[in-house]
Amino acid sequence: MESGITISLEPVSPADLGEVDTIFDELTAYSQHVDGVLRRDNAAYEFATALPPGYDPRQKHAFLANCQGAPVGLLDIIDGYPMPGTEFIGLLAVRESAQDSGVGRALFREAERFARDHLRARTLRLAVVETNPVMGFWIKMGFRPTGEVKPFEGKMIKSRSALMEKEL
């Protein structure tokens, strides 16, 4: 619980893709920063299924984040990526209408709890695209840059992503 905000994580099923789509409809600022478009085609399907090469679908944990029974965000974690004991947050996103209210922080705390308690994570890892102004949020959540930078290619934007980690 964070500032009285309770987040529950519901695993995404094929029946939930419409609901996931409605959240992507409210992530236009994120899409513009990362992809250079208002919305990526097939965003819900990619969110639910995208995996690094060689990883099994059972290692993918895609969730709808709910607050007071209403979907407010998305969370995607890859178990054991890039190595055992490390959980990779592929996406943690909050509807624009729920941003700046503590929901993002509460969603991260729930993601951290899930990774630690259910996946037995020792380290959380993520990549921040340079054009997405969220580095400060992740530093406040306890992440530190690893020094690794990789090329990133969005739909219309070419950029770089900085890798960050947090020990649990």
From TrEMBL:
Keyword list, A-Z: Transferase
Signal peptide: none
Listed Gene3D superfamilies: 3.40.630.30
Pfam families with a match to the protein in the record: Acetyltransf_1 (PF00583)
Residues forming coiled coils: none
Residue span, N-acetyltransferase domain: 7-168
Molecular function (Gene Ontology), one example: acyltransferase activity, transferring groups other than amino-acyl groups
Name of the protein described by the UniProt record: GNAT family N-acetyltransferase
Species name: Rhizobium sullae (Rhizobium hedysari)
